[in-house]
From TrEMBL:
Its EC number is 4.2.1.24. Zn(2+) binds at C121, C123, C131. NCBIfam families: PRK09283.1. 5-aminolevulinate 2 binds at S275, Y314. This is Delta-aminolevulinic acid dehydratase. It catalyses: 2 5-aminolevulinate = porphobilinogen + 2 H2O + H(+).
Length: 327
């Protein structure tokens, strides 16, 4: 053989144990946050047509879901509410007996060790489907802040461990932090949807949460998918206003943004593996085009590799099973 000089990288790939020994990125059950859609009514367990395996659940159906979550070793859930009635100002979002508040009380009473993260927004509760107060077709920033802070406080009173505001109004973290502090909830952290793009990947979620805008779109408050530097400005503002976690949403097409935010900030970074990303995988798996387990685990690992500490994902239950199997 010729006298060649080269590095033998394959030495560290020879066996499964060797590959495990030098593996750099790990996905744990503790990294997963499972989204749950809670609806008003009784005996409701509606599968979301565009999200196979994901259900809208009434409070009386939560026990079975939570028993499974606990048995799988998942430590945190994020609750989204689907009310029966909606109005112009999203009253159900901040009502003492709103659906997220009632779902939170149920989980904390029966599963006190589980962390409950409350999604804090108005879009599921407004009859126009936007994330704030609307006047003549415009989504008003500052009047919306008061209602968002009111929502956060009501969720904290119900027992939420973490407040997760997703509305993308300017100043929302500052308003919510002030509202929580004034109400005696200085200890409740804020998991901010700091970097949330006006993405086409949200369609199935809007089916699940019944939150499709009735006019226009959300491009005046959610970010342009073409922008990268803007993400750091948004995250910086939220950190300065008191955010404890930073969410990047969506995740899969925005791994570069997750890495940018990770490099810039020391707070825990959360990747939101959104509904469209989930549904594409499910559709391909149902058609037999992919190996679902291998693809999902590769996808979630890529989010950890990009810099995420935690992942909100509809795959959480399956991923927890696959992680357990690999131990």
């Amino acid at each position: 053989m010729m006298d060649l000089q080269f590095t033998r990288h394959r030495r560290l790939r020879q066996t499964a144990n060797m590959r495990a020994l030098v593996r750099e990125t790990f996905l744990r059950k503790e990294d997963l946050i499972y989204p749950i859609f809670v609806v008003e009514g009784e005996n409701v367990r509606n599968e979301v047509s565009s999200m196979p395996g994901v259900f809208q659940l009434s409070i009386d159906q939560l026990k079975g879901e939570m028993d499974e979550v606990v048995s799988l070793g998942i430590k945190a859930v994020i609750l989204f509410g689907v009310p029966k009635e909606k109005d112009a100002t999203g009253t159900g979002a901040y009502h003492e007996h709103g659906i997220v508040q009632e779902g939170t009380r149920f989980i904390k009473e029966h599963y006190p060790e589980i962390l409950v993260i409350a999604d804090t927004c108005l879009c599921e509760y407004t009859d126009h489907g936007h994330c704030g107060v609307v006047d003549h077709g415009d989504v008003l920033n500052d009047p919306s802040l008061k209602l968002l802070a009111q929502t956060a406080v009501s969720q904290a009173k119900a027992g939420a461990d973490i407040i997760a505001p997703s509305n993308m109004m300017d100043g929302f973290v500052a308003a919510i932090r002030a509202g929580l502090d004034e109400a005696g909830f200085e200890h409740i952290p804020i998991m901010s949807y700091a970097v949330k793009y006006a993405s086409s990947f949200y369609g199935p979620f809007r089916d699940a949460a019944d939150s499709t805008p009735q006019f226009g779109d959300r491009k005046t408050y959610q970010m342009d998918p073409a922008n990268r530097r803007e993400a750091l400005r948004e995250a910086q503002s939220d950190m300065e206003e008191g955010a404890d976690f930073l969410i990047v949403k969506p995740a899969l097409s925005y791994l570069d943004i997750i890495r940018d935010v990770r490099n810039q900030f020391n707070a825990p970074i959360v990747a939101y593996n959104v509904s469209g990303e989930y549904s594409m995988v499910k559709a391909a798996a149902i058609n037999g085009w992919i190996d679902e387990e291998k693809l999902v685990m590769e996808k979630l690992t890529s989010m950890k590799r990009a810099g995420a500490d935690l992942i909100i994902t509809y795959h959480a239950k399956d991923a927890a099973r696959w992680i357990e199997k690999s131990l």
